[in-house]
Design goal:
It is found in: Cell membrane. This is Multidrug-efflux transporter. One of its GO terms (molecular function) is antiporter activity. InterPro entries: MATE_fam, MATE_MdtK, MdtK-like. The structure is a single chain. By secondary structure, the chain is mostly helical. Helix 3 runs antiparallel to helix 5, helix 4 packs parallel to helix 7 and helix 8 packs antiparallel against helix 9. The longest helix has 38 residues.
């Protein structure tokens, strides 16, 4: 109890982790609720809609993730500048992320225009492909608002001030959820739009987030302290460092999502029952996964601030504090997934679906939820240690680790299993579980080697000379 009390009060302890992380958890929970209710509404709208939603959203996020993973690294620069006492550089760091959003938005818009050809290559049923294309194209065209919103949110999250981000995301969810329902089903003044309505509701949430953060970030007081106006110029040196550390972060996020997307593609080759059950199980997993990502961002910020002040012991201490909290949460969610799968899966039951029609989906979904429960525990280790390594700047190792694991554990084995065995739906799920187990082992090992202690994200001239090593 004495040790727990000390860890609660200490710098880098539980209290600081929760102060930074809980608003991010609530933010991610807001995103989770939006995604979860989106799937529920689509599931109740039609089985085809929920079947198309998973591959379409995964395919979109596959491309979006590269730019998102890169832009999110602005928070580490802000964290290290804050830890080094160089708050005058915070605005400039944020602006480099905004500049990166320009080509990102253009590329995503182009992908939205040609996404029909992408889905044609996959070979899904034509009716599903039409819905997948409609969803992808709509969200891709509005993605720029979401990307700039992420860059602006780093101004707060990198400094460990996460409540404004939480409030903005909660407001966006408040707008998204009822709009989602109305656009999908054609309620109030809106026509019935099905899966396209779900995509438009997502874009509306992007716009709300963007507008609110612009109003919060760009103030006279913030300019005096952080140069949010004065630091608008393109800084070639700083942008170069941002690309050096941020691009591997974007690539690793892309490769991770590629592995998950490939999982989705392979699942799509099975029957509609197996596809629907898998989509439901993955959608339920977001209840655990996305809030844990919020704590992963928290550990990146805490480690980044400790690295900026040259306090390596505090960086290690902070990671362990966050790890304890995430394991507690993910373990609890795993128990819920095992003990109450029928209730969670029942939320996705389509309107008018008979007991006989839903029974095989439910029976398979209950089994798949056991995979999800074990997956969440392994994912807790991978998420926290990856966050710590990112905060220290070890993004290239993360990139190579995820790249090799995605190919060696997910893509190649799934191709071989599908083409040369009588693989059933358990094949992809076993590969997915093994994938996260390998990643958790890699990241735990890497952090314990201490290689990250020799890395510096910001220029060495900006790092204070004081602090405990």
């Amino acid at each position: 109890m004495h040790r727990l009390h000390n860890r609660w009060k200490a710098r880098g302890g539980y209290r600081e982790a929760l102060n930074i992380g809980m608003p991010l958890v609530v933010s991610m929970a807001s995103t989770t609720v939006m995604m979860f209710t989106d799937r529920v509404f689509l599931g109740r709208y039609s089985v085809d809609a929920i079947a198309a939603a998973f591959p379409a959203s995964i395919a979109y996020f596959l491309f979006y993730s590269f730019f998102l993973g890169t832009i999110e690294y602005v928070s580490v620069f802000v964290a290290q500048y804050t830890g080094a006492g160089r708050t005058d550089r915070v605005g400039a760091a944020m602006w480099q992320g905004v500049y990166f959003c320009i080509p990102a938005t253009i590329i995503l818009a182009v992908l939205g225009m040609v996404c029909g050809d992408i889905f044609a290559l996959v070979g899904h049923d034509p009716a599903l492909r039409e819905m997948e294309t409609a969803y992808f194209r709509t969200v891709a065209m509005g993605s720029g608002f979401g990307l700039v919103g992420v860059a602006l949110s780093c101004f707060y999250s990198g400094r460990g001030i996460t409540k404004p981000v939480m409030v903005v995301n909660m407001i966006a969810a408040t707008v998204n959820i009822p709009l989602d329902y109305m656009l999908i089903n054609g309620k109030w003044i809106f026509p019935e739009m099905g899966i396209t309505g779900a995509a438009l509701a997502t874009v509306a949430a992007y716009v709300v987030t963007f507008v609110l953060l612009v109003k919060l970030v760009f103030t006279t007081d913030h300019n005096k302290r952080f140069n949010v106006f004065s630091g608008w110029r393109f800084d070639r040196s700083l942008f170069g460092r941002f690309m050096r550390f941020g691009l591997p972060g974007g690539i690793q996020f892309f490769l991770d999502m590629f592995a998950i997307s490939f999982f989705g593609v392979m699942v799509g080759k099975f029957t509609l029952v197996e596809l629907a059950a898998s989509n439901m199980a993955i959608s339920v997993d977001t209840l655990a996964f996305l809030p844990a990502i919020g704590m992963s961002i928290a550990v990146s910020v805490m480690v980044g601030q400790a690295m900026g002040s040259n306090n390596l012991r505090r960086a290690e201490y902070a990671l362990k504090s966050v790890l304890h909290l995430v394991l507690l949460y993910m373990g609890g969610m795993g128990l819920v997934f095992v003990l109450a799968p029928e209730f969670l899966l029942g939320l996705f039951r389509a309107n008018g679906m008979s007991d006989a029609e839903f029974a095989p989906i439910l029976a398979l979904g209950v089994v798949l939820m056991r995979y999800v429960a074990l997956f969440t525990l392994m994912d807790a280790l991978a998420i926290v240690y990856m966050g710590g390594l990112k905060g220290a700047g070890d993004t290239r190792f993360i990139m190579w680790g995820i790249g090799c694991s995605s190919l060696g554990v997910m893509v190649v084995p799934l191709i071989l299993l599908y083409n040369f065995t009588d693989m059933n739906i358990h094949g992809p799920w076993l590969c997915l579980l093994l994938y996260v187990m390998v990643l958790s082992g890699l990241f735990v090992w890497r952090f314990r080697t201490g290689v990250w202690k020799r890395l510096r994200v910001i220029d060495s001239a900006d790092v204070v000379k004081t602090g405990s090593a």
